[in-house]
């Protein structure tokens, strides 16, 4: 494997004399080390095997640093769209788990959520099972989750500000619910959103979803549809996600970003941000 540069990022200052960093330099056999800032370092002129790169990844994971290997330089101008999953990606929570908490059912629902995110359970089946458990819940619970528990992920606001300033369009595509995505779209001035519709009758959740369920295939179709509307290739899209439901849309993108993701997703993404914020993607751009 040939890699021209490797970016190392951390939430904290990286000491170039730290034994872990010195081990990375030795493993990479890089030509030079460039300090972008105290928390971001670039190893340039790297030509190493896949095995050496895996060893470097293990060192970084242990040190709580994020490593990204680039075969060619990236620029925001290479891209026209950023597509993001919502739950546990753009925001810190899984909305359905927090809604379930209002019913005293968070452990049962969260267990199903985790299995689906790991790819052990088909998303459609998992969503139907979870939503059914919410039957009879007062719809005001959704507002409480939005007001009391929903927070943007670390670095999300900085990342969005930068990509929007650079002229990229933004898409929020979620296996979650329109109650939340519609509000996030408005609040963050996003261009597109697509998610599931919870059925509500007489102010209560019926335990059902209306229309097409936004599963992995529907997420991929949504990215493709928005790209077609914009007259661009999916290869001009940056796609961010954390669970197995995001893999299909990530696989068609030009740059896939696994954020605080399950191992199955980290293994298949171009970039894995395990420790830094979503704005870590900006440090990969020149």
Overall shape: it is elongated
Number of helices: 12
Question: What is the terminal-to-terminal distance?
Answer: 22 Å
Query: CATH class of the largest domain, please?
Result: Alpha Beta
Uncertain stretches: none
How much β-strand is present in the residues?
Answer: 15-25%
Helix content: 25-40%
Could you say how many structural domains there are in total?
2
Radius of gyration over all CA atoms, rounded:
20 Å
Reported by name, the CATH topology of the largest domain is Rossmann fold
* SSE string: EHEEHEEHHHHHHEHEEHEHEHE
For the residues shown, what is the average pLDDT? Answer: 94
- Secondary structure category: alpha/beta
Which assembly state applies to the chains in this document?
A: single chain
What is this structure, in a nutshell?
With 286 residues, the chain is α/β, with parallel strands linked by helices.
Describe the structure in your own words.
With 286 residues, this protein is an alpha/beta fold. It has 12 helices and 11 strands. It folds into 2 domains: 5-73, 2-Layer Sandwich (Alpha-Beta Plaits); 77-92 and 152-284, Rossmann fold (3-Layer(aba) Sandwich), CATH 3.40.50.1000. The strands form 2 sheets. A 7-stranded mixed sheet has the order 8-7-6-5-9-10-11, with helices on both faces. A hairpin with a 2-residue loop joins strand 7 and strand 8. Helix 1 (19-28) packs antiparallel against helix 2.
């Amino acid at each position: 494997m040939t890699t021209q540069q490797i970016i190392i990022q951390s939430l904290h200052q990286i000491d170039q004399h730290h034994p872990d960093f010195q081990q990375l330099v030795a493993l990479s056999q890089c030509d030079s080390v460039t300090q972008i800032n105290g928390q971001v370092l670039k190893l340039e002129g790297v030509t190493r095997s896949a095995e050496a790169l895996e060893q470097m990844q293990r060192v970084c994971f242990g040190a709580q640093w994020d490593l990204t290997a680039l075969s060619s330089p990236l620029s925001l101008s290479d891209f026209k769209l950023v597509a993001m999953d919502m739950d546990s990606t753009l925001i810190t929570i899984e909305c359905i788990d927090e809604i379930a908490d209002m019913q005293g059912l968070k452990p049962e629902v969260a267990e199903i959520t985790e299995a689906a995110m790991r790819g052990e359970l088909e998303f459609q089946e998992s969503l139907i099972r979870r939503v059914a458990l919410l039957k009879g819940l007062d719809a005001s619970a959704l507002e409480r989750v939005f007001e009391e528990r929903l927070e943007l992920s670390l670095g999300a606001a900085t990342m969005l500000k930068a990509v929007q300033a650079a002229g990229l369009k933004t898409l929020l595509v979620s296996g979650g619910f329109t109650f939340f995505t519609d509000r996030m779209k408005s609040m963050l001035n996003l261009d597109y959103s697509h998610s599931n519709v919870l059925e509500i009758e007489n102010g209560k959740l019926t335990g059902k979803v209306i229309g097409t369920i936004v599963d992995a295939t529907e997420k991929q179709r949504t990215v493709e549809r928005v790209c077609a509307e914009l007259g661009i290739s999916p290869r001009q899209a940056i796609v961010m996600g954390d669970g197995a439901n995001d893999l299909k849309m990530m696989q068609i993108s030009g740059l896939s970003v696994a954020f605080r993701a399950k191992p199955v997703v980290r293994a298949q993404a171009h970039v894995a941000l395990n420790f830094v914020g979503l704005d870590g993607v900006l440090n990969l751009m020149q």
